[in-house]
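Chapter review: from sequence to fold.
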Amino acid sequence: MAWGYVDQPPLAPFVAWLTGPFGYPVWALRALPGILAGVTTLIGAAIAAELGASAFAQALTALTIVFAPGLIGIHYGLSTEFLSPAAWSALIYLTIRLVKTRDERLYLPIALVVTLGLYAKYSIAACAVALAIGLLVTGHARLLRSKWLAGAVALVVLLTLPNALWQVSHGLPMLETLHNDQLNRHALANGMADESPNRWINAVYMFALQFAYNNPVYAIVWIWGLAWLWRGAVRFLAVAYLLLFVLLIITIGRGYYIQGFYPALFAAGAVAIERAISGRARYLKPAILTATFVAGLPMFPLSIPLLSLPSYMAYERAIGLSRPAPPDNTYHLINPMFADQLGWPTMTQTVAGAYWALPRAQRGITALFADRYAYAGALNFYGPRYGLPAAISPNNTYYLWGTRGYTGQSMLAVGATDYRLLLQWFGSVQQVAVYRNNLRWMLEGPLPIYLCTQPRVPLAAMWSHFKYYGL
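The token string follows.
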């Protein structure tokens, strides 16, 4: 464990580390995110109550949060986003309370929420700044001149200092990661794309993903909520959301980066709908809640693996998500979130086959080099059962962990991203195996495994040339 990592703060790795004594079981890795799904739903309902909701609007808020695909996906398992919806929602709730009550002591819990959020994902800082600007331009500037705010900022700085010092002492690698990720926005292996290095094309993708991540049917709720906020007493929330959206366009961000704001937008939309139908036919409220529930059901299997793999792939075909693809007109698994959870044990087996095919004397000096951290992580997790040594990688924090003493005399390189560099630094680069998995078609093609020998310089000397911070 460390106070920081190249591309992320330390909280998610720490939570994963806590499950180590249990063998990193899936249930343990999903437990806290699952609990936070409930917390996010409760906070969303509380936001609705602060905005004037009765039981109907709170129930509508809860349903939209529970069934929003993007939020389900975040809470399905442990990831670096696992805390974002709950932390953002708590920050928004406390800010609404601050505006309504003028109780500046609320800056203390706000500081604690921001601190915890920063240890999970730095993006909550953007949310906090956007909310502050929203307050400034909507007539709440006095709240920003508070000594309590100054103290809250100082507290956040103090509590996050260990992580900040780690980043500074390592040359602010997070900035390099963000820059490389902006340049590396690309289509998936099958040619489908939901991001682009072109700012304006990426903005179109990002805009479309707001509907996909939050259920297209639910768009009427959050868009209505955004419009209602703009005209209401808490329009600073609408300003903050729009500022964040513009920031994502400028920085070529990903569509899910703003997902933490949607519980508040759902809450606002629910209140707006409740007021619009007030005094009308009694059946409208149960009809709306029923329609919201029914509209959410088809999206549920797309966000969480409720079905067996064959049944799920049949479901993709049934709803038209999966279609025959060239060159052989085969149906493939389309959901990249599911595809990325498949094939890691068999990939490790393939690498193990190449490793154990080497002469005994050569195996003792052979490094397992993975061009990306995901492959290295899988090899290190599943590798011991096949007698594999620990893998090395030049990607993200693995780069800082170095070559583990390997000289480069013999190296099995997994992945083709660094193939040209391998040819540059090794006299012999031979493909000795390839891993294929059609279930990962959405993400990648065949994964080559190369045996590299005859290094031109020691591995430590060439290591910096392989360095890559980013996905």
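Two observations follow directly from the output. The radius of gyration is 25 Å. Residues 344-466 form one domain.
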